[in-house]
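Sequence design from tokenized structure. All designs in this work follow the same two-part layout: the structure record, then the generated sequence. An example of the structure record is given first.
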């Protein structure tokens, strides 16, 4: 059992200097080691910055697409509002000039048309 422990401790001592793909020689000064660590940290930060830059670009494109869609929807709503106000003006004219029977028929046909359009779009 002792020989197994000695073997492990010798092996640990042998491979003690191996770090991240290479052997660090004791001839390196601590300044060079810190410089290497800083270079690795800078590379990692550059990768993160590049990822964030791509992500913000994607977000910008998505926002621009949504803004265009909202503009189109606003224009469609404005045109619908214009059509509905014209229709309401026509209804007012009809209600003011026609008989009650004609008005009831017009209202009933409008409601039926609305329900038909509602069920067709649903």
């Amino acid at each position: 059992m002792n020989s197994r422990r000695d073997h492990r401790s010798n092996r640990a001592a042998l491979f003690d200097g191996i770090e991240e793909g290479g052997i660090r020689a004791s001839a390196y000064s601590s300044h060079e080691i810190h410089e290497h660590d800083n270079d690795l940290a800078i590379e990692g930060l550059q990768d993160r910055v590049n990822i964030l830059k791509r992500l913000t670009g994607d977000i910008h494109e998505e926002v621009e697409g949504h803004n265009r869609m909202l503009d189109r929807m606003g224009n469609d709503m404005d045109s619908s509002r214009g059509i509905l106000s014209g229709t309401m003006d026509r209804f007012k004219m009809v209600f003011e000039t026609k008989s009650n029977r004609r008005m009831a028929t017009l209202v009933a046909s409008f409601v039926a048309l609305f329900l038909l359009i509602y069920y067709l779009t649903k």
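The radius of gyration is 39 Å. We note this feature because it recurs in several other targets discussed in the main text.
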